[in-house]
Amino acid sequence: MLKNRHFLGWLQAAPLSLVLLVFLILPIITIVIVSFWQATEFSIIPAFSMENYQFLFGSPVTYKVFLATFKYAAITWALTLAIGFTVAYYLAFHIRSQTVQIALFLLCTIPFWTSNIIRMISWIPFLGRNGIANSTLIDMGLIDEPLEWLLYSDFSVILAFVHLYTLFMVVPIFNTMMRIDRSLIEAAYDNGASGFQTLVHVIVPLTKPGIMIGTIFVLTLVMGDFITVRFMSGSQSANVGRLISNDIALLQYPSAAATAVVLLCTVLIVIGILLRFVDIRKEL
Amino acid sequence: MAKVGYTRRALLKGGAAAAAASALPAPMLWAQDIKNITLRQFGTGVSNLNDVATKVKEDLGFTLEMTALDSDSVTQRAATQPDSFDIADIEYWICKKVWPTGNLQAMDVSKIANYDKIVGIFKDGKLTPDSDIAQGTAPHTVGFIPEPGATTFADEQTNWMTLIPTIYNADTLGIRPDLINRPIESWAELLNPEFRGKASILDISSIGIMDMAMVCEAMGEIQYGDKGNMTREEIDATFAIFTEAKQAGQFRAFWKSFDESVNLMASGEVVIQSMWSPAITAVKSRGIDCVYQPLKEGYRSWGGGIGLSQSLSGMELDAAYEYINWYLSGWVGGYLMRQGYYSAVPETSKEYMSENEWGYWFEGKEATDVITSPTGDTLAQAGEVRDGGSFEERMGSVACWNAVMDENQYMVRKWNEFIAS
């Protein structure tokens, strides 16, 4: 009987395990293997060579690009967290009627009904030298010359990231906030805590798992991105994703695979560190 | 025009039938079978036109399937997936990369009817007997192989051609004369501080490096042995100049796709940049003044051609030869030349163009009437002259061909560095 149950358990887990094995584990193993191969322009040579990694770690560009990637990730994270937390807080604690709450929440998702790329590219005519932002500012008399840094700069890259990914912060934070027992907040007030104290000592600690899930979403999305950086910086800045896409475009698959492996490890380490602070399983 | 087309068609059909009659016992059967033949062609967007496929069906009877890709993907596909195509429409520098893989088969020149009429650039490298051969991967250097099956190129014309030239042009910088207000004469202007924050270059390393070299040479900073095959020192020096300019904010953006270059120019973000001929046309068609500026140092040129897959044989191979002969017989050439490109056999294309069109596009004469593209857009008004003038003037002042260097991998890494700097 016991043996039977054991068998049944394996059987039930099998479909998911198989799917993960074929579509997640195997591709990653392939990437790792290919990262040790060598390539010329038109052929890939199966070999075991550390050359790709040697080049990667030996080049100052790699460090610069990883640094830029972290910079984008950190700034985007801070901004999406500030905006996401505020929006979620407002939705969860200031809107009393559930209908309005749902309506406003759906409102947040409306931009996501269009494609990622469209949302990003629509910033370009808006921020351009002769774009709406500049002409409005000039008409208002605030500036005399168009602001050049609005487009094709780190500013526009981060603006697009924040625009694209804030919702990934709002949703998990809102979700955790809705689960906070309201009597805890009443208790805080009854004990004489100010609004700010309640926020810092009650709401923020209880929202941590949501913040963490949002953080993981935003960090992985920003660190893995290449198209936003390319379009919004006018190809003038690079992040790790662009290094990989350039390599692929030039048929340097092994080199691209090596960069991908390093990026994967970096992201895993970051997430590993984050998970030491908060137990998100409590949330799930 | 239609009459000529019909004669041509009849001629080819007749020729095909005659060829078939000698090879097959039942030529009628062959005529039936050709309808079932499908040739799969892939290449860059410039010449992969659906209109061509439609015309092939009409004139030759078989089906031509077109796939348009960007030049990186084209190289990738030609090098790694030989069974996925029958006809590769690639650039000559791509041929230099792909030919050694053995995925393409050489063509028997004696089966090419108009071979003698092909422009000299593709045969001995000379437009006229006394013209100089430009630097870079000049088409004739990778145009022939010594014998079928060879993976190295021949130094002179042989009976075995790698690619049949189809389309080529001379590229230069595009400018917005209304925003610059003074004549531009040199490639060096791209890095002129006057245009700080208003210049752009294309982010495709193999072509971008050429434009960079033209600029550095024009500035008098670097003397290249061969711009198409730089040494590491030359590559380093070139990138040093451009990295400095980039950090000083010279560039507004880099572009990778055709549309990006059009938008940068049309919106006024950029007033001077490397550009492709049809992109200029696209900007102009929005009513914005834009010039494909001839420069005193000359043009950076490129050329494309059709190659046959190694796996083509039998009836499909015959159909492919028929297609190539049809391609050079004028209709396609006329179609491409009316967009501002050049045909490998200009004299056959002439029959498919009006006198006004031929004068404007090829001879550099003033247009006597409105010039329209094959799709009907107005490209020039009566009285206008083509930027750069006639065929001989434009193709005669080519300084460099698009190329792939021996130090390509090193260059690509430096390019990545440049973008990240």
Oligomer: heterodimer
Q: Hey, which two chains have the biggest interface?
A: A-B, 32 and 35 residues
Query: What percent of the residues of chain B sit in helical stretches (DSSP H or I)?
Result: 25-40%
Helix-strand sequence of chain A: HEEHHHHHHHHHHHH
Spatial sequence of strands, sheet with the most strands of chain A: 1-2
Supply the number of helical segments of chain A. Answer: 13
Characterize the overall form of chain B: globular
Major β-sheet annotation of chain A: 2 strands, antiparallel
Characterize the largest beta sheet of chain B: strand count, sense, and whether it forms a barrel: 9 strands, mixed
CATH class of chain A: Mainly Alpha
Mean pLDDT of chain A: 89
Summarize the structure.
The complex is a heterodimer of chains A (284) and B (421). With 284 residues, chain A is mainly α. Helices cover 75% and strands 1% of the residues of chain A.
Explained architecture:
The complex is a heterodimer of chains A (284) and B (421). By secondary structure, chain A is an all-alpha fold. Chain A has a single domain, classed as MetI-like fold. Chain A is built from 13 helices and two strands, in the order αββαααααααααααα. Chain A has a two-stranded antiparallel ribbon. By secondary structure, chain B is α/β, with parallel strands linked by helices. Chain B has two domains: 2-169 and 303-350, Periplasmic binding protein-like II (D-Maltodextrin-Binding Protein, domain 2, 3-Layer(aba) Sandwich), CATH 3.40.190; 173-297 and 390-420, Periplasmic binding protein-like II (D-Maltodextrin-Binding Protein, domain 2). Chain B has 16 helices and 18 strands. Chain B has helices spanning 2-23, 27-33, 50-60, 71-80, 92-98, 177-180, 205-219, 232-247, 258-266, 277-284, 314-327, 331-337, 346-350, 355-361, 391-396, 408-420; strands at 38-44, 63-69, 87-91, 104-105, 107-108, 135-136, 160-161, 164-171, 173-175, 199-202, 251-255, 272-274, 291-293, 299-309, 342-343, 371-372, 378-380, 398-401. In chain B, strands 1, 2, 3, 4, 6, 8, 14, 15 and 18 form a nine-stranded mixed β-sheet that branches. Chain B has a five-stranded mixed β-sheet with strand order 11-10-12-9-13, sandwiched between helices. In chain B, strands 5-7 form a two-stranded antiparallel ribbon. In chain B, helix 4 (71-80) runs parallel beside helix 5.
